[in-house]
Amino acid sequence: MMTKRNEYVPQTVTHPGVTLKEKLDELGMSQKEFAVRTGKPEQTIVKVIDSKSALTPDMAVKFESVLGIPAPFWLNRQQNYDEAVARLKRSELLAKAKDWVSRFPLKKMTDFGWLPEKRSKAEKAEALLSFFSMSSSKAWEDFYLSEKLKVSFRISLAHYGEPYAMSAWLRQGELQAMQLDAPPFDRKAFLAALDSIKKVMAEHPDDYFSQLQRLCLDAGVKVVHTPCLPKAPMHGSTRWLHDNTPLIQLSARYRQNDRYWFTFFHEAGHILLHGKKHISIESAQQESAKDKKEREADAFAVRWIFSEEEEQEVIRHGNLTEQDIIDFARKFGTHPAMIIGRFQHKKILPYSVGRQFMKPVHIEGYCD
Fold first, then answer.
1. Residue ranges of the HTH cro/C1-type domain (predicted)?
2. C-alpha span between 122 and 39 (Å, rounded)
3. With left for phi above 0 and alpha for psi between -120 and 50, is residue 72 left, alpha or beta?
4. How many C-beta atoms lie closer than 10 Å to residue 256's C-beta?
C-alpha cells in the first residue's frame, strides 16, 4: 500500500517524483504512456509524481527499464527524502519538548561534562535524549514514570518529588559503569572482598575509592562515584545492569566517611540479600519511611561497620576518652568515625563531639 505524505519537506531534498516528472517532460512522455510502459496503474504514477506516495523497489527496477536510469538512483532519492521527512518531524518534536527540557538541571549537568554546551532548546533536547539513549521525551516518560510499563530493569521514579534530576543522576552512573570491565559476579568473592574493604574503611587512605573499586571489580561488582545534582539528594543506589552485573552508585552527599561507608555496606547488603530484580534508590526523601528491605540492608551495614554487640561493649565502658574510641575502633577493625557517627545518630553524643575523627570524602558536586 502506498503511503500518503502531506508534510512540508526542505527545499534541498525533493521527492523522487519531482525528478520523474522532469524526466518525463524532457522525453515528452505522458504520465499515461509511462504507466502503460511500466505496467503500473496511472493513479499510482500520478501519486508518485505529486509526492504523495513512496517509490518502491519494484517501481525503481521498472523505471530503470523504461527510462534507463539505474534503480539505485531512484531508491537513494526516496531514502534521502524519507530521512529528511523523519528529521523534520524530529525537529518539530524537539521544539515541542522545551517544557520537558526545562525540568532538568542542565547547567550542572553541562558543568559536570555530562552534556555538551548547547544554545537552543531543540539542541538541548537532542543532547538530553542522546544522554538517556531515548528517542523522545515520551519514551523517557514511559521508561521512568509510567506505572504500566513492566520491565525488570526499569527504574520507576513516579513517586519521587524530583524524577528528572534523579533520572539524570542514575543514568550518569550507568554511563560510568559502561567504562568499567568486570568479570561475572561471584557472590563468594564479593563476600570475601568485604573483609578487605572493611580494612580500607578502617584506614580510609587517600586512595580509598580506587581500592574499593578494584576490590569490587575483582568480584564482578561495579562501583562508581557520581556527583550530586540540585534537587536530587542521593546517597546511593544499587541495581543490576543488562549484563547481570551489579552496580553500586555512590555520591558524597554528607562529605564524611562514616555516612559514606555506611551507604556502601548498605548497598552491598542489597546485592547479597535481595536479588537481581531489586532496585535500591537511597535519597533524603526516603529517610523517614524505610521498607523491610531497606531495614535489612541497614542491619547488614551495621553488622559490618560497627555491630550492635560492639556498640553495647563501648557503652558499658562508660565515660569515653579520645584514646578509648581509637582503641575500640582498632579492636573491632573499624574506624573511630563509625563509632562516633553511630552515637551521634542515636543522639547519645551531640554532633559537635568527635568531629576530629570524621574524614572528608572528596568528590566533585554537591546536594541541595
1. 20-74
2. 46
3. alpha
4. 17
Q: How is domain 16-95 classified at the CATH fold level? A: 434 Repressor (Amino-terminal Domain) (1.10.260)
Cell 525533493 sits on residue: 14
Name residues whose C-beta falls within 8 Å of residue 341's C-beta, 6 or more positions apart in sequence.
Answer: 256, 258, 259, 262, 358
Residues 198-227 pLDDT 10s: 999 999 999 999 999 999 999 999 999 999
This prediction's pTM:
0.81
Q: Residue 154 has what pLDDT? A: 58
Domain assignments of the chain as residue spans, ordered by start: 16-95, 145-357
Sheet of 222-225: strand order equals 222-225, 246-250, 234-240, 280-283
Q: What is the pLDDT of residue 269?
A: 97
- What local confidence, expressed as pLDDT, does residue 234 receive? 85
For residues 270 and 332, what is the distance between their CA atoms, to the nearest angstrom?
23
Average pLDDT over residues 80-93: 89
CA distances from 227 to 109, 197, 234, 305 (A): 10, 22, 9, 24
Mean pLDDT of the chain: 89
**CA 126/CA 147 separation, integer angstroms:** 25
Average pLDDT, integer, range 21-39: 96
User: What's the pLDDT at 291?
Assistant: 83
Residues whose CB falls within 8 Å of the CB of residue 295, separated by 6 or more in sequence, listed in order: none
